[in-house]
Amino acid sequence: MITPHGDPLGRIGEPDIGGQCIYVRELSAHLAKAGHAVSIFTRNRRDGKPDQDEYAPGATVYRIPCGPPGFIPKEELGAHLPEFADAVRSRLSGNEILHSHYWDGGSVVMMLRAKAPWFHTTHSIGKLKQAALPDGEQYRYGERIAIETDTYRGCDRVVALTETEKQQIAELYDVPEERIVVIPPGVNTQDFQPVEDKIALRRELGLPPNAVIVFALGRLDERKGFDLLFEAAARAQAADLPETLYVFSAGDGSAGEAAERAKIERILETNQLEKAVRWIPVIPEADLPRYYAAADVFVLPSRYEPFGIVMLEAMASQIPIIATSAGGPATVIEQERSGLLVDPTDTEAFANALTMLIRSPNTRLHYGERARAAAVAEYSWQAIADRHLVAYEAALEEDRNAR
Question: Which among 201, 213, 301, 311 could disulfide-bond with 229, CB atoms 3.0 to 4.6 Å apart, if both were Cys?
Fold first, then answer.
């Protein structure tokens, strides 16, 4: 596994530590559980973590010194990736399957290009992100898109998280569809599950026991759409609703988040929402299942979301979801069965979805039950690891036949 910017054992919520890291960590652990040795190469951010960390039997993280000490935004890692590739090259035996993640991982494997089957998971699509930027800023994605293009055309298989993403990659980057395999992320359905006594759990967490709790979390980034959530919340709160608390966990206080935090705080102040919102620090990963289980509704308001592992965590926790219709959620959420899909930039539609679920406990119950059933049946990490193993074996067979 080649994942330069995303340490799979990093603290979720820190800069550039998010869903991709959970994905690599859990997929690798379950591949190892099936009897395969998995090495994960990531950048050493010099934050006190060991150079080598076997976090599950057979799954080991190797942290590679690369560039200057400290955090480097993933957008600025390109100049340091040759150093990373050189260090990884010396550790390969030549008998591996290489699986790169994100454009920086793809860049590294292109430099390595060992004679081994090469899989690549993109996690987001540069051309779609570029299209969402103002005209004067689109140049920022030029280098990334060039690397993505070469990666898609050079690897043996592209792993798309959804059928929609498969079509986007094929059309935007001119990649033959037969070289793209669709395998979604997974979720740990043992860690994330409903609780019998939600009121007791809320008291433990210091949350109001009888309020309708709407939960949202993620990185404090404009693309995540939290400003859109609170614009819609302001409109929804104007209706005659039961007591509602928005529990919002995002941001680690870094300087790079200051502008987005200030924007959200202005929205809350302007709309007198401060008392309706509980803005809490990044939740320790071990505590996260309890917050999902304590909630009544989960919201994923991204302007565009390739998939959204948080969506699966909410589903496994038996929580109905309001999610963006732009991207992966539309292939997972059954509209008006396990949740509601909205255009988060349509404030009225977004507010109507919030209002409907806040007002209707029976609808929340039915949506949540269907969401949990889908998570267990289709998205457990072992099932997802098994699907990867089938794809890996097919690539190995092709490689053997080519020889």
Answer: 301
